């Protein structure tokens, strides 16, 4: 099964999507399953994983409803307040829906760079394994040291680093980013999404070769068996069309054996999210 492990749906609202600023006009509209399905079909992808963007239970329910109505949406990474006192009750309730595969918090926007190490957040993370849920780590490179501490605390909890931790794609590999990606890759329960790269490059003014050094670090750190393709559609449209994002990775993968290509383009996501 070929899977896009990372994309979003929304009914655009300036209040719910305040992160979409004046430079992101292309995103100021609805993006729904019927918009994505033909793109998946055109690229011979069997399905996708829908990921949260708005930190609300209402959005989690919206994504689950989308998945219930559209079989190509194989799973949902939603949001629940992991710091809430009643988080276990929420997990008991939401985990009854088999389409909920994991949770994500937009840590990159938290003013506290050490948010992931707060006791109340750690308590929430500690409960995910019990309910069979994964956790998507959305961070900037400055958060990588905290991410490493986090994953070491929970060796049985499946984690995935979104968007290769969002390094700036500018031809200058930051040694700190490379170091911590190597360290995270040494943790067998940590995976990585080859996603979100085009928006970290100069929008619309990149070449496929720009991404090769960064992908080399990721593949050397995690191996194909723990890397999954994600388009980050529709956010990717700020810098590239869906076919361009897909081509970056498929072209890079030509130097790998067929089995490795199959892992990155679907089998890894299938295993990680239990699709």
From TrEMBL:
Database matches in Pfam families: Amidohydro_2 (PF04909)
GO MF, one example: hydrolase activity
Keyword Hydrolase: yes
Keywords, sorted A to Z: Hydrolase
Domain Amidohydrolase-related residues, every copy: 3-275
Gene3D superfamilies hit by this protein: Metal-dependent hydrolases
Assigned protein family: Belongs to the metallo-dependent hydrolases superfamily.
Protein name (database record): Amidohydrolase
Organism: Flagellimonas olearia
């Amino acid at each position: 099964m070929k899977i896009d492990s990372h994309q979003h749906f929304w009914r655009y609202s300036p209040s719910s999507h305040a992160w979409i600023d004046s430079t992101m006009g292309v995103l100021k509209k609805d993006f729904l399953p019927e918009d994505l399905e033909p793109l998946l079909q055109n690229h011979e992808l069997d399905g996708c994983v829908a990921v949260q963007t708005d930190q609300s239970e209402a959005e989690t329910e919206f994504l689950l409803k989308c998945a219930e109505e559209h079989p190509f949406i194989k799973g949902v990474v939603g949001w629940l307040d992991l710091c809430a006192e009643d988080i276990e009750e929420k997990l008991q309730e939401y985990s009854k829906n088999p389409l909920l595969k994991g949770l994500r918090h937009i840590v990159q926007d938290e003013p506290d760079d050490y948010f992931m190490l707060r006791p109340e957040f750690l308590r929430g993370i500690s409960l995910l394994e019990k309910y069979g849920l994964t956790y998507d780590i959305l961070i900037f490179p400055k958060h990588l040291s905290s991410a490493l501490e986090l994953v070491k605390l929970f060796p049985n909890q499946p984690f995935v680093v979104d968007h290769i931790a969002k390094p700036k794609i500018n031809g200058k590999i930051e040694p700190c980013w490379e170091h911590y990606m190597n360290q995270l890759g040494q943790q067998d329960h940590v995976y990585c999404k080859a996603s979100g790269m085009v928006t970290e490059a100069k929008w619309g003014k990149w070449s496929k070769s720009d991404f090769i050094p960064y992908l080399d670090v990721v593949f050397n750190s995690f191996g194909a068996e723990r890397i999954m393709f994600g388009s980050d559609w529709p956010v990717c449209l700020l810098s590239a069309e869906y076919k361009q994002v897909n081509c970056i990775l498929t072209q890079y993968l030509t130097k790998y054996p067929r089995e490795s290509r199959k892992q990155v383009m679907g089998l890894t996501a299938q295993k990680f999210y239990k699709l």
